[in-house]
Amino acid sequence: MHGARPQARHPGGPRRAGAHAPESRPTQDPAGTSRCAPLLDLRLGEAAGLQVGDIDFLRRTIGVNRQIQGSTDKTTTVEPPKYGSERTIHVPRELLTLVSQHIAKFAPRGDERWIFWNPNHADNGLWNHNSAGQAWRTTRRAAGLEAFTLHDLRHFYASGLIADNCDVVTVQRALGHSSPTITLGTYAHLWPSAEDKTRAAATSLMRTVLSAKPAAKAAQTS
Question: What is the reported pTM?
Answer without folding.
Answer: 0.71
